[in-house]
Amino acid sequence: MSFPLLTTTAVLPAVGAVATAAVPAGRRTAAKWLALLVSLATFFLAVAVAVRYDPDGARYQLTESHAWISAFGVRYQLGVDGIGVALIALTALLIPFVILAGWHDADPLETGSRRWRPTQGFFALILAVEAMVIISFEATDVFLFYIFFEAMLIPMYFLIGGFGDRAHEHGEETAAAQRSYAAVKFLLYNLAGGLIMLAAVIGLYVVAGTFSLTEIAQARADGSLSMATSTERWLFLGFFFAFAVKAPLWPLHTWLPGAMGEATAPVAVLITAVVDKVGTFAMLRFCLQLFPEASRWATPVILVLALISILYGALLAVAQRDIKRLVAYASISHFGFIILGIFAMTSQGQSGATLYMVNHGISTAALLLVAGFLISRRGSRLIADYGGVQKVAPVLAGTFLIGGLATLSLPGLAPFVSEFLVLVGTFTRHPVIGVLATLGIVLAALYTLVLYQRTMTGPVRPEVTAMPDLRVRELVVVTPLIVLLVFLGVYPKPVADIVNPAVQQTMSDVHTTDPRPEVEAAK
Amino acid sequence: MSTAAVHSLWTTAADPIAKIEAPKIEYGQLAPTLIVAGAALIGVLVEAFVPRKSRYYAQVFVSVVALCAAFAAVVGLAAGGYGTTRAHVAAMGAVAVDGPALFLQGTILLAGLVGLFTFAERRLDPAAHGNRVDSFAAQASAVPGSDTEKAAVRAGFTTTEVFPLLLFAVAGMLVFTSANDLLTLFVALEVFSLPLYLLCALARRRRLMSQEAAVKYFLLGAFASAFTLFGIALLYGYAGSVSYGTIAQVVEGKVSTVDPALANTTGNDVLLLIGAAMVVMGLLFKVGAVPFHMWTPDVYQGAPTPVTGFMAAATKVAAFGALLRLLYVVLPGLRWDWRPVMWGVAILTMVVGAIVAITQTDIKRLLAYSSIAHAGFILAGVIATSKDGVSSVLFYLAAYSFVTVGAFAVVTLVRDAGGEATHLSRWAGLGRRSPLVAAVFAVFLLAFAGIPLTSGFAGKFAVFKAAAEGGAAPLVVVGVLASAVAAFFYIRVIVLMFFNEPRPEGPTVAVPSPLTVTAIGIGVVVTIALGVAPQYFLDLADQAAVFVR
Predict the structure, then answer these.
(1) Which of A35, A97, A124, B441 is deepest in the core (most CB within 10 A)?
(2) Which of A154, A187, A231, A235 to mutate to test the interface with B (most CBs of B within 10 A)?
(3) Confidence label for A61 from pLDDT (cuts 50, 70 and 90)
């Protein structure tokens, strides 16, 4: 038996989480370094996964399969395709930056007992989320996936509710109340989605008799497992609902702005750049593969919902007064693009959507983490509290601008490639929706540039005159992300090469081929 | 005339005594019950003859040994194949020795043992008049707050009668799950109910509430018992027998011999339907299913918390065991009649339990409503009418009972000057003051909520899967929706504990003795073990899921 690389990649952060949590109360810094080292080691493992993965090889690689709960027909079954590899790499890449950016976010206040160890808890929870996200990207057993899809809510919930920005315009009491409200809303939305999915998971088992994704997909493909049309549609809806809550898709998105607004910037990055990706990833892997007919049946509605997400998210982002909520609404708009790309059912669309997941992760992380540095300096999330920062802290303003430009998909930065592919892919099949979706880009330019203009340009406000520029730790966080944005903007081939074969597979699962290019014959 | 001849004038020779068949009792196979019942009797003697100083230790010793020995006997019987191939009906058809019986007896014994540890806890409150005190009243019959009561406390009256009471209750429950005729069922019902009524009244703090709880429980329980008894009479009229096997045969239309006295009623379906409904009603009362759940919140809240924990876990196991046996052994021929009704009961139970729990402000009442919702989930497995249904219910009960005992044990720890601080608002910020206790309680709450990687999820998945396979898909949908609602109030408690600022005069967490620590520790370990690696226990439940008839 070969070395269980996938298991190790997921188990390492889990072990790291336990170890970090066990660090004694007095040794906070040791806990931070331990968490950082573990996350870096995980990143190297993820790189090893990417290197070992052969894009032209079998569909699922590095597979592992062990008996687990045979009474339920559940196996511990792992395997990655190109999409999984890309997202595992993204996750493992971002976590060290999240940890570094949140270095001081969980230093304990005066209250609490001797045994209250928030710092250890904070970093342990981040690693726990990482472990669960990675294993969800690897699972090829529906039950195994479901377990971690649900379980990751719990550490996420504590991260949102337990840790917030230090300074708050309404005082600590209100901040705590708003935080726990946001955390509960996050949990209930996702839990409700997950429980509805549970009913569908059980239904799938009753119909298929197994939880193995590969077996079911195989049986679906060769026709040995047929589902009644209505059964398939109900099961599809059960799965899709959970993923649409997680992604989030309009109108199930309302938990996201609250959660991202109240959480600290690194946790907000964790939500939108890492955890939410599991939702869109699962649409590709589970909805399309298990229920191809129903996926095509639902496409028109989903495309419209995705379009609404794009425009609605962008419009609300324009109207936000709070920096983090603005980024949250921008993310809703971007998730609309991702879902649009997935359900456009063209290879450009799906490749674009997968690239979009990666690029959105990096660009949002860059923008949000810099925004977090900004907020921690001034102690306010309100856009109106800033002005003229670029004169005082030029590096901060510059990196903020680059993050913002990536968010609006400026050509030359990574998100442009993916957004372009999604739009092309959508346009070839659904021209009207494709055209309307481009409006999202215009609005993105509006909300990003207005954000930059209001906070960074203009006269220097008295409160920001003493604002220090980025420190070394902060530069270490931001620089690699920006380098990566530029690199993938100019040369997206490495990621595209890994992703494309997997997308072709998914396309054949849903029995669709790209529409032929039609050129009107010249008379 | 010889003496013999004279004698024969006014006497007649009877048949030799040897002709009366002595009942054949398989003592070995009944060992678990006999051990516990015998130990309970010894406990009564200990209460009478052992000096007050050493009474507590003697009682704890007897009880622990008895429960462990009984559990060993259950394991021995199961290992001997009595759960599977050698399953049969013992004690002249009165008691079944089969898989479900042994599995549930084992569960009850372990729950009883863990419950016993919380009963024996004497470190939570400061000593009164130089005597260590536990959760129980020194003299339950004294008027609360009266001089008699104070005198009893001063004199250092012990409260060790709770141990034999617990053992009697456990013995009754052991028989209840394995009763194979209706009279044994009824006797067992009374044997375990009466000690529980008493135990409920014994709280040392909040005496009035405790006594009120006991009276309510007793009155409603007596009603339920009466219903059961009436139902038993009707079923006897219907089948001419109280034996499960015979009734089942009559239900299926295979009447062998009709007692001439019952010629008019045998096989009369009206008697069957009404009788079965009444017996099932009595069992649903014990289970705490809606609409027979009214007693649950009051009793759970008023009873001493260790008793609540034990009762919530073990009673539910025993009652579901009896319900399963009745529905699967006696009334399978009637399932087209009882399934729709049980559908309604299950849906109502899940929905009412989950929704009403949202408005609760007392942690014990909250857990009471949560137990109602869980009864609904378990009923979904009962309705499956399949082997998977039985095994899923067995597994769920085992998983649930450890979570419950553990959760109530944690409740006993959070205290202020007035005893346990059960009002939810008092729990604010507990996570800051005592992270470990709050984290443990959070684990239990997550298990109740059915979050993956806890035993609650494995159990919930098992029953829902069985229900879906048994054609009850709508029930599963209602179940997951009710779970979503239920998750809300479990989460609310976690929010309170971790995200709210501690109150300045908030409760403190008492430092417990190793007894309670063990009880909670076992709860946590089982909760996580059954969540991460449930395979062994699922197999066990699967092997045990065949009834003997």
Answers:
(1) A35
(2) A154
(3) confident
Residue B150 buriedness (CB in 10 A; 0-12 / 13-18 / 19+): middle
pLDDT average, residue stretch B456-472: 89
**CA–CA gap between residue A13 and residue A517 (Å, rounded):** 47
Q: What are phi and psi of B122, to 5 degrees?
A: -130, 20
Chain A, nearest residue to B458 by Cα: A72
Alpha helices in A252-346 (DSSP H): 255-262, 265-269, 276-282, 288-290, 292-318, 323-343
List the one residue out of B376, B331, B382 whose CA is nearest residue B355.
Answer: B376
The CB-side HSE value for A15 (13 A sphere, CA atoms) comes to 10
Average pLDDT over residues A135-160: 89
What would the pLDDT profile of B353-387 be if each residue is shown by its tens digit? 999 998 888 999 999 999 999 999 999 999 988 88
The one-letter amino acid at B68: C
- B chain contacts of residue A202, beta-carbon cutoff 8 Å: 461, 464-465, 468, 476
Confidence of residue B5 (pLDDT cuts 50, 70, 90): low
What is the count of residue pairs from A and B with beta carbons less than 8 Å apart? 116
Highest-confidence range of A337-346, B15-24, B78-87, by mean pLDDT?
A337-346
Give me the pLDDT at residue B1, please.
54
Name the average pLDDT for chain B.
87
Residue A443: closest CA among A330, A325, A307, A321: A330
Which residue type sits at A35? A
Sorted by sequence, the CB contacts under 8 Å of residue B10 that are 6+ apart come out as: none
Looking at residue A167, its pLDDT comes to: 53
**Per-residue pLDDT at A476 exceeds 90:** no
Coil, helix or strand for A60? coil
**Most B CBs within 10 Å, among A188, A191, A230, A235, to test the B interface:** A191
Please state, in angstroms and rounded to a whole number, the distance separating the CA atoms of residues B247 and B252: 9
Where do we find the tokens 């139970």?
A: B349
Tell me whether A329 touches chain B (CB under 8 Å): no
Of the listed ranges B22-31, B35-44, B393-402, B523-532, the one predicted with least confidence: B22-31
Q: Which residues of B touch A116 (CB under 8 A)?
A: 432-433, 435
Mean pLDDT of A256-274: 87
- Supply the mean pLDDT for chain A: 84
Q: Provide the token pair at A278.
A: 């599991």
Asked if residues B396 and B321 have their Cβ atoms less than 8 Å apart, the reply is no
Q: Which residues of chain A does B484 touch, with a Cβ-Cβ cutoff of 8 Å?
A: 188, 191-192, 195-196
E strands, A34-101, are 61-69, 74-80
Q: What is the 3-state secondary structure (H, E, C) of A294-320?
A: HHHHHHHHHHHHHHHHHHHHHHHHHCC
Question: What pLDDT, in 10s, does the model give residues A31-53?
Answer: 888 888 999 999 998 988 888 88
Quick check: A202 and B484 CB within 8 A?
Answer: no
Contact between residue A379 and residue A460 where contact means Cβ atoms under 8 Å apart: no
Residues in chain B closer than 8 A to A245 (CB atoms): none
Q: Taking the model in full, what pTM does it have?
A: 0.87
**Cross-chain CB nearest to A199 (options B436, B457, B480):** B480
- 3-state class percentages of chain B: helix first, strand second, coil last, to nearest 5: 70, 5, 25
Alpha-carbon distances of B310 from A428, A430, A499, B109, B260, rounded to whole Å: 66, 63, 56, 11, 47
Report which of A339, A337, A342, A375 is spatially closest to residue A464, judged by C-alpha positions: A375
Length of chain B: 549
Residue B410 phi, psi (nearest 5): -65, -40
C-alpha span between B254 and B2 (Å, rounded): 57
Strand ranges, E, within B353-459: 414-416, 419-420
Please state the φ and ψ torsions of residue A104, each to the nearest 5 degrees: -105, 5
Q: What is the rounded distance in angstroms from the CA atom of residue A35 to the CA atom of residue A41?
A: 10
Tokens of A277: 């990706």
